[in-house]
Amino acid sequence: MAKEKDSQDNQSIFRKNIERGIEKKIMALSPDESKITYQCSRPYTTGFKNPEEKVRASYFAELVLDYNYPQKNIDFEVTVPRRTPEDRADIVIYEDDEFKKPYLVVECKKDGITDAEFKQAIEQAFGNANSLRAKFASCVAGTTKTAFDIAGFNPREREKNVISDIPIKYGKTPKYRLLKGGQQEDLKVVSKDELISALEKCHDTVWQGGKLAPTTAFDEISKLLFCKLRDEKITKREEYYKFQIGTHESAEEVYDRISSIYQKAKKEDEVVFKEDIRLDPKIVYHVVEHLQALAIGKIDLDTKGIAFEKFMGDFFKGKMGQFFTPREIIRFCVKMLRPELGDLILDPACGSGGFLLNTLDKVREEIEQGHDENEAENLWHDFAKNNLYGIEINDQIARVCKMNMIIHDDGHTNIISTDSLRNIDEIRDMHKGFNKDHFDIILTNPPFGAIVKSTEKDYIDKYKLGEDRANQKTEIMFIERCIDFVKPKTGRIAIVLPDGILTNSSLQYVRDFVMEKCQILAVVSIPQFAFTHYGAGVKSSLVFLRRKAEKEKAENYPIFMAIAEHIGYDATGRQDPINELDTIYTEYQKFLKDSKDYKGC
Fold this sequence. Notes:
6-stranded mixed β-sheet; alpha/beta
């Protein structure tokens, strides 16, 4: 039942509305869903394949079922006089049965159009409404809706006459539309595609065709998303949300209200964002338009995770691919180390937070299977807050990670931006949770290829693998740092390493150090292309280790070895139906049960 509920909750809001309309017999679909018939002032049948028609059908259902406008007073494809070339209004609601008093004119567009296209649609709605002498106009493009008071303003006015929403059944215009706990006025849970579309619209709005650098644009959207999520959380029942556009509000008024949310949050949690919102009020206004009606906090974590991952990828992959580890690799590493509720987890090169968030998802799933809903929610929120730690050297990407954690219902307070290779005491001074010999599990994909020079960093000679060396590769020093961070005897590590560390004769001293300090649990070779569509192409392996106790003697023991040629995606990043990592995990479980007699496959 829970899975069925999730599926329903994540269904497109357009589809939900259309199904409501069909159930109430105000519309009907043909058996192959190629045609739709509306029961309005007259039966009106048209094609249903066009994405715009789905938006129109959804809004028609809302007009009748939520706003209580009579079907008999609604018409479709109304010819507009005095328009050249001849134009037709998508939907017109009349005040009278004789269809002489147009009340509301609606222009519908498909979801995901650009701000420029939406502006054109608004002009079309105004042209039609002014020609028909209607009182109101509404422009609907998927989840983005803007309504206007036409009658009381100059025909050229486009800002002061914005209203929060159209009136319910010829009534008064509401000051605000979105009310927490309201039956029809509360925020709506949307599907993955609708959330991705809304985020993409925000991207286009803020990016402004390339005026801002990708990381700067992402920072600004993150601030607004942060305000949106915070507003959803702190608004009390029967109160209006602040993250919305009110009737006759200017862009400056909306900006000031959003900024006030941000400033209050910033005082309480300065680690998330340091700078103020640095966007023009009109840009903020348009982002609010795109996001205001969505219940982002209530969207399930898997949906949010996939949507946000794609959203981040649109900004960063290719340019900052080193901060991303493919989901298939992450899931496999997490499964192999099997994190549990009490484990302290660290990624000392956390990037956008993929390992930490997948660990959270894994632990959350297990908690939800064994506890009631409220208890499970408290347990995994505590786990997110107290057990997940990350270090990221790039300050902007650290903020990406924090935002990613917030989107996933938190855990961002233990993400810090610094050099993981610096003295541990200095790291602990920044955050007391980062202690030596402290963590149960490390999952990480450290940066490859960078050289640390002793003339630039004074910590190289503090490392066993850096002694008497003028320079050392970051990935080699990361191995030692990971071993330092995990608990002796029980601490486990999953780390992505270039194959050269495992095979080059000149690096035997590194392998000797690893074998002295750790038991090698498994080595899984992954293909050359594993990271190519993320901007990196070094042939790598996944290495799984257990740190030995301080006086634990070296013994001969079997090591699980595997080669994966298919990993769920190909060199271009497209999905591959074959994922040998699943088979390798199954074989590893067999190996763990009886490593001496394990024959392989």
